[in-house]
Specification:
With 366 residues, this protein is an alpha+beta fold. The protein has helices at residues 5-25, 27-33, 53-69, 101-108, 114-124, 160-165, 254-261, 273-281, 297-309, 317-323, 339-342, 357-364; strands at 34-36, 50-52, 77-79, 84-86, 92-94, 150-158, 169-170, 177-179, 185-192, 198-212, 215-226, 229-232, 244-248, 265-269, 287-290, 313-315, 348-351.
């Protein structure tokens, strides 16, 4: 009998959160781990784009843990980061999870001192079970679910710049942070490889609740949207608002914002694609729109699956306004994957209430 995939993804996300917090808790270690992305790995939208060893280690840990439990999925588990990292001598090291903590520590010792490598390896190989009251009752998945037809996109730390800086700036809207650790998420999304439809999503906020200096508790959201099963732990009440509220990148096109404002929307600006999508999931905003092609499949697969389990969805911005009808983002596997095929190059629109799309698409196509 297969273990419950949703529960295992939640556990993997919590292990990821633990690794992220450990790496973040020591400023000297954090600075040591930061390495700038270059070439095809870099996001062209940003002048500087960074990856950290935490990113790479989390990604490879999730791939290892889920691939071990679900071998039929192993070759279809993909993430944002290259597993290659340079040590202080400029040598390229491939981060690999060994069968034992000792093997993993030996690999990490190529980059870190032995003591730190052993601490991180211990965390990688520690059994982690997330048991939070807000998690809700995770349902059994259909017995005939074909795991060989499922793929996974991982964003190990969405909001890497926020993770590195940690500086928080708050918006005028309760619960919405513009920048800071609250914008950091771990995203694990499962999709049907034949249809390209996201079917399971897990989104974790590793720094949701600060208990003490460098001590945090994470909050995890999950959703399942299969033809025979829709479930989630995101049954938040829709708040009463005088105006609708949208959340955007600070670089969003002014003309587009003007049109949306004419529909009676107020604006919040925040970092992190996963963070912004999560605000739609929790009803803290009504709309997340990005007209630029600066997100990728690993950014959207997890939150889109959760939105679909709630009756919402995530759509292509240009595809929807071009056809004047909503066109959901797709994860269909079509030939060789390149940086271009991994990108949501036509932007995105995320809503939980799909009835908002009629007025929105009409206004955007005027």
């Amino acid at each position: 009998m297969e273990p419950n995939l949703v529960q295992q993804l939640v556990n993997a996300a919590e292990k990821a959160a633990n690794i992220a917090r450990i790496c973040r808790s020591n400023e000297a270690l954090l600075q040591l781990l930061v390495q700038e992305k270059t070439g095809p790995e870099a996001n062209a939208r940003f002048e500087h784009d960074f990856k950290t060893l935490a990113d790479v280690l989390i990604q490879e840990t999730i791939k290892h843990d889920i691939g071990t439990l679900f071998p039929a999925m192993r070759d279809a588990i993909k993430g944002e980061e290259s597993p290659n990292f340079k040590n202080v001598d400029g040598e390229s090291v491939t981060i690999a999870i060994g069968e034992t903590a000792e093997e993993t520590a030996n690999c990490l010792a190529s980059i870190l001192n032995v003591e730190v490598a052993e601490v991180l390896a211990g965390e990688v190989h520690r059994a982690v079970v997330y048991e939070e009251s807000l998690l809700g009752e995770i349902p059994a998945l259909p017995a005939d679910l074909d795991y060989s037809n499922l793929g996974i996109w991982i964003d190990p730390i969405d909001g890497t710049a926020e993770y590195i800086s940690g500086d928080s700036i708050f918006t005028d809207f309760p619960g919405i942070t513009s920048t800071g650790l609250d914008c950091v998420t771990v995203l694990v999304g499962v999709y049907d490889r034949t249809t390209g439809i996201p079917v399971i999503g897990v989104v974790s906020q590793p720094f949701h609740n600060k208990l003490d200096e460098n001590v945090y508790r994470s909050l995890v959201f999950w959703g399942v949207c299969l033809p025979e099963l829709q479930a989630n732990n995101c049954q938040f009440e829709r708040p009463e608002r005088d105006n609708r509220l949208g959340i955007f990148s600070s670089s969003e096109n002014g003309d587009i914002l003007q049109r949306i404002m004419e529909l009676g929307y107020e604006f919040a600006f925040a970092a992190g694609a996963g963070h912004k999508a999560l605000k739609v999931i929790t009803w803290e905003v009504d709309l997340y729109l990005l007209s630029k092609g600066s997100t990728f499949k690993w950014d959207t697969c997890a939150p889109q699956a959760i939105l679909r389990s709630l009756g919402g969805d995530m759509y292509s911005y240009r595809g929807s306004i071009g056809d004047s009808k909503p066109t959901p983002l797709s994860y269909i596997e079509d030939g060789e994957e390149t940086a271009d095929t991994k990108c949501n190059k036509d932007g995105l629109i995320a809503v939980r209430d799909v009835t908002l799309l009629d007025d929105l698409l009409k206004k955007l196509t005027e």
